[in-house]
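ERR on first pass: missing label on line 2. Operator R.T. fixed the label and resubmitted. Corrected input:
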Amino acid sequence: MSISRRRFLAIPAAAGLAGCARSRPLRVAVVWSGDELRRFLGVVRHSPYPVTVYSAGDNIAALLRGPSGEVAPDVAVIPRLGLLYDPDIRRRISPLTGIRQQPRFWRDLASPTAGQVLGAWFKIAHKSLVWHRDGEGLDRPRTLDAWRSRKLSIGAADGWVLTDWFENVLLARSPSTYSRLFSQGESSPELWGTGEVNEALRLLATIWQQGVDPERGRRALTLQFHDSILDVFTYRTADVVAAPDFAWPVIARYRAEGVVAGHFRFPANGGAEPPLVVGGDVAVAMSGGTADAFGFVDWLTSPRPSDGDRPDTQETWAAEGGFLAPYIDASTSPPALQSAARDLAGAKTGQYDLSDRLTGPLAGGDGRGLWRILTELFTAVTIDRTPPAAAATAAVGRLVSAGRRGAS
Amino acid sequence: MSEKDAFLFEVVPYHDARVRVIHQRLSRWRLGLYLLLAVLLAAGVLLAPLAATVLISLSGGLANYGVLADPEVLQALGNSLVWLALAVLVCAAGFGLAWLARDAGPALTGVLRVILVLPAAVSPLTTGAIFRLLFDTNPQRGAVNALLGGAGANVAFLGPGWIWMVLGLAFVWQWSGVAFLVFHEALARRPKSLLRMARAFGVERRRRVWSIVLPALAGPAALAYLLALVAAARVFDLVLMGAPGAMQAEVEGGGLFWWRHNSDLGAGRAAALAVLLSIMVGLLALPALAGLRGRVTWSEPPAPRPEPGTGGLRRRARLCLLSGSVTILWLLPFVVLVLTSLRAPDATAVSGWWRFPSDMWQFTSYGEAFGDSGFMGALMITLVRTAAVVGLVLLAAVPAAYVLAHEHLLPRRTWRPVLLVAVALAALPPQAFAVPLQESISRIVGSSLALVIVHAALVIPLAVLVLHNAFARVRTPMVTRHRWELFHVVREAAPAVVLAGVLAFVLVWNDTVVGLLLNWPSGDHLSLLLLEQARHFMSTIGTLAAQAVIATVVPVALVIVTGRWLYRGLTHGVRK
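pass 2 clean. output:
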């Protein structure tokens, strides 16, 4: 497997602070690149511990799983919850002790075994939003079945965009199935073959087929997440795009003049609750976790004392949009994102991103797992115009067989 | 003699027809010493892990080879075959260009050589980024779609089906220059007197081509094919950067598939897939080896080129057209990259590079690259590491090639198989030995030393081949046949030594595969930093372009500076 971890920035030890006795700075592995990485570096610049940040990109799993435990980082900020459940990685993570507790919903997510909290959430995301240009008379769909958007923008080049769609539809239709798949998805492959999954896939296929014609489908397969936002807010070639809260900074940066962004919740199924899919990045201390590693995780994932004279970079980030966290108050976010932040603060029924939770052959990544199966479904219904029912059945078959491979 | 065997890989015994001299044999231990480093590296880093992979794949009989029943595996292997077929297309393009330029004057030939070979020094990651940008689906950004937009068409070039065309063009752009070099030299040396004679005796044209021209081209064709085949077998980063994530499964070969899935497949099946891949490449390389083994006589020196001004109008028109279109087509990707890097980063995400007058000469992207301590650190580390690899490669390959090139130093029966092994190792996909290697050196994994050693071991077979060919052709006066002969040989074959060094430099500098495959926690190689930008390709293309320009300048400058030596090293190997 792969690794691309790099030494990114060595921050000189902040003199006079705890941790000076250490011979080397804490090594922190993250996944971000570009803007987000720059933001994160801005955050850790104020860290009381000397820190070296490595960006491992999408290959962080290999970094944590790799054969050489002794060169693993001290702290990792993990974007996929599934990695905490991966047996090879789990035994390298030190359970957190003596750090401030986060809200119960988030704490439970980071506890693969009861009573043992492995990680604390640094950043969380609201993945059940649909964005559009405000004030252009868009007819908001009230329910999933009534969703007849003709001009959907879908960044199908990024597999996680498609899995977010699937998760929202499945969660809206059948929260119990979602919850079962969440906890036993890779150990019980037959769960993927149930009627609920099939029906959710068929509904998803129907929405895609109606919203994306063959030409746009071909284009969509070449569009990444950021491009799909440009189509709505810069070029106006599409009406709506389903995207998480962190679409906000992209919209703010690239939107055409005069365009105002608005959003609504992903439509519900009939009269039920609208779905709330959440994601996030969780900070963990790796094995041999020192007091400093715990201290850094605690510092990174807790609110700052309000009397500090330093500017709190996390709050600034949140205020500019694109950064939500369980330890930052919803009112900090820009007005457009405050409702999303409040949804997350009250997340109880909310479910964590299923594809980020999966391990084994169903785990995501370009050209593999759930990402690949949904890409094929998308291609079948939008470009080849396969009837949704047939395409959904084919996808179910592939899900079950991939699940079997993992369970065996 | 030096005019014969004008190319490398001439795996033919070198028959010294000159007066026998009394060779001063090297003592046995000294002989061993000369070969020691190369053999240790090749055996320890390549052969032993390869054997381990084969053993793992055979654990439990042939059951692991049931991996072939998986449709996704079959698709990936099928894609590998398409890539390998593209190697033939590269040869055809190279030959076509060489044929069109067969009677070009020396100045034009020199220019064509440089322009056509430059892409081979660019990393496939950068190539992928440039072609992805050129063929972007959005007509605001993609030049080709902007042009087509005038005709009212918009094609999703990066989408299903078309993606093969984009990546195929990128591949041809990158490698056909090397094939051009080989064929151009071969055409210049085709047996003209024999052809004249055949014509005088009334042998018809078809027969002349069939029995004189084609056999004379077999050797060079085999060489060009082998070089393109090695490039095709290792296609990896081109797909990672050039294709949008969702499209990668459609074009990825077995090597990339293996990288994504080896943990899902399980050790045995992953090993079986790696072995199958190696066998496939090996089988396809066989015709090339057969072609190289055949005796090819190009005893004629290059014919004096026609003086400029002579020849018909048609010839001049053809050459003008050729040089014009080659210059435009081969330099355009470089222009695109440089213009993109010079634009405001925000503008690159929403509009194309041809809008440059409005927001040109903003060095923001370069400022970001140079201000990024991670990038600058990686630049330095990569430079130091690459230099260390070049040193190690020459240290190991020069004495080894020296021993192999002089059959008086080795029993005749041994050296030929050794050379064949070198050819096989040069073409071996790294997937075939990555896992056992990684496990066996996990103790030093992450240290720069480990990376240097593995890189060196990978390049040594190729370096030995290049050097062996030149060393065998050094004329050694009797006086110098003493213990310092090695130094005399190195001095005489300096062009080949430069060639081997530059090859090692370019391969290591541009490497992505080894860094990704071998799980290096200190993945601070330059190309790995570029790869991370693919997460948000279009919104980071400005920064990516600036970083790619900086990363490309180094190998390209090296190739331009050493150009004459490289050409001489490739075609003659020796100084005179």
